[in-house]
Amino acid sequence: MEGYDGRLFLDGLVRDVHAATCAETVQALALAVALAADDAGEDETAPAPSASAASSPALAAERAPADVAAEAPSRVAKRAEALLGLAFGGTSALAAGLSPELALFGGVDFDGRSLRAGVSGARGAEVSSASGTSRVERLSLHADGCPVSARTGVLRVSPCARLDVGVLRGAGQALENAESRSLLWLAISGGGRAGVDVTDALFVEADARAAVPLLRHTFFVRPSDVVYRVPVATVELSLSVGYRFPK
Q1: How distant, in Å, are the alpha carbons of 24, 28, 148 from that of 58?
Q2: Among residues 149, 127, 159, 162, which one has the least CA distance to residue 234?
Q3: Structural domains of the chain sorted by starting position, each given as residue range(s) with its CATH number in brackets
Q4: pTM above 0.70, yes or no
Q5: Which pLDDT tens digits describe the chain residue by residue (247 residues)?
């Protein structure tokens, strides 16, 4: 047979080509090489995932833990909560034993920390002397802070510090030429607070503090009959009920 023959060795395979002219033989060999290259490229290329596979439930389930972990801090973050409360207690600052005290307070709680302010009034028992009887009363403003707290079951415990500023008023009763006088009350105190949340908004707390008066005044009946002297240290106890306002 007349013409030209060509042989191609490719990937262990042998291909024979026959054409009438030399140019046709070369073109046939080149075409065979090109077809073999296209077949090899298709085998090595991995198919791209389809849109349905990318949105499949299995892939969504694999992404879910990371999404949940990223969103968790925003769900557990606590907000500042305004509060208002009423406290009943006793103080040893005005007479022997505990004198009754009533306080109204408000403030804010945030992530176990507390900052509050309020007003309180206490009335001491009557004190008898050779000249008659007298009584000491106290009206004061206070601010307290509890920087940390710890929980034991339902009980919340916090260390707290407090500053009181107000007036002491001493008044004579059943005395000849009786008169009254008001003096500055200034004290710092520290102690602890234990609380229980009755509901998400309603709470009950108990406070116990030791206070140190910074000014030690004396009340007396003329000419020199002392009826009251501010003590070196006092005990302050209270039981309160309060309400946190949800946001």
Answers
A1: 55, 50, 44
A2: 162
A3: 4-76 (no CATH), 81-245 (2.40.160.20)
A4: no
A5: 566 677 767 666 777 777 777 777 777 777 777 777 666 655 555 455 555 544 455 444 455 454 444 444 444 446 789 999 999 999 999 988 899 999 999 999 988 899 999 999 999 888 776 667 778 899 999 999 999 999 888 899 999 999 999 999 987 766 665 567 889 999 999 999 999 999 989 999 999 999 999 998 887 666 667 778 899 999 999 999 999 998 7
